[in-house]
Amino acid sequence: MNNQDVPPKPTSPPTGGLPKVPAGNEDPGRGHSPAAGPAPAPESVTWSQHVPEAKPRMRARTKRALWKAFFVVVLLAVVSGLVWLAIWLNSGQGSQTADAETSGVLETSVTPPATPLPLPREGVPATEYALGDCFADFNPEALASRVVPCDTGHSAQLVAVFRYPEAGDYPGADALKAKALEACQAARLGPAADQYPLNFQRSFPSDTSWGSGDRRVDCYVTADGGNVINASVLP
Questions:
Q1: Which of 63, 114, 160, 232 would be a feasible disulfide site paired with 132, CB 3.0-4.6 Å?
Q2: What is the rounded distance in angstroms from the CA atom of residue 121 to the CA atom of residue 134?
């Protein structure tokens, strides 16, 4: 027996920290026979408990990567849309300018003065008719007409004019009729137009007058009863 206070140095590694596995003959009251091989480790010792934590981390990284890719795709789509919109707007402005240069100009608003004062004026050539002019005893096929003040009796008023560009071939009678109809449909009439029974009448150049430089298509409002209109029908 060793009576010293310091215990002797162990000859083998201590086993106090390891789980104890009872031998088969240490519990004879339970009626179990000793195991033929080494005893299994107790259920509390599980060395692979923390391994599955890698999957949630991988899923989180995958989600972050997918969200980043989604935002990149959305950003690229927005940028592409803005670029396309800018190109479309620029092309639209260019086409409108080209149309104005090749198709002509429509006039529906009076820019005073129209036919120079004083009025009435006799024998005004058709090529000098101005938008807003009022005519007494009007004949749309005449080469000249009498222009009178719109607050005196008249039978017609010029309410819309379409001017083709100087360059260009003769469009043909059908195309000119259609353009004159568009001009009449675009005409802006004022409240006075409701006081009279009026009709639209169109005038356009022939191939001969086109060759002489006539490029205008006119739209008039006319009264069947003669010089019965006593006010301008334009706003």
A1: 114
A2: 11
